[in-house]
C-alpha cells in the first residue's frame, strides 16, 4: 500500500532523514516511535510533500507519488493530523471525525464513521463533547 525507498529530507543544509525506507502493507497498522528530532514528523511531511524530499521514491497503492502536490495526495486518501494541536477545538468529536472525510460521499463517510466508532468506542460516548 505505501512504500518509501531511500528518502532524504533536508531543512536547508541540515539533513533530517538519511535514506529512510519503510513498507506498510494494506490493513497493517504502523507506529512511528522516537525521541524529539528523530525524524518522525519529517518522514510524514516528506510523504505528503509538505517538505519536498531531495531524493527517494514514494509509492502508494502501486502508483509513484513522489513529488505530487500535497492536495493530490490528500485526494488519494493520505493525510496528516498533528497530535495535540487542537486543530478544531470548537468542534465536537463527531465534527472533527467528519473533517477527515470531507472529500467522500455521505454513504462512504457514514460507513467510515461507523468503523472508527466501533474501533474506538469511547468516541461514541464523547460524540458531542468539544474536541
Structure notes:
Belongs to the ABC transporter superfamily. It comes from Flexistipes sinusarabici. One of its GO terms (molecular function) is ATP hydrolysis activity. InterPro entries: ABC_transporter-like_ATP-bd, BCAA_Transport_ATP-bd_LivF, P-loop_NTPase. This is Branched-chain amino acid ABC transporter ATP-binding protein. The chain is of the alpha+beta class. The chain folds into two domains: about 70 residues, Rossmann fold (3-Layer(aba) Sandwich); about 50 residues, no CATH class. Helix content is about 30%, strand content about 20%. Strands 2-1-3-4 form a four-stranded antiparallel β-sheet, covered by helices on one side. Strand 1 and strand 2 form a beta hairpin. The protein is globular. The two termini are about 30 Å apart.
Summarize the structure.
Residues 17-128 form the ABC transporter domain. It contains five helices and four strands, in the order ββαββαααα. The chain has 131 residues and is an alpha+beta fold.
Question: What descriptive keywords fit this protein?
Answer:
131 residues, alpha+beta, Rossmann fold, 2 domains, four-stranded antiparallel sheet, 4 strands, 30% helix, nucleotide-binding, ATP binding, Branched-chain amino acid ABC transporter ATP-binding protein, ABC_transporter-like_ATP-bd
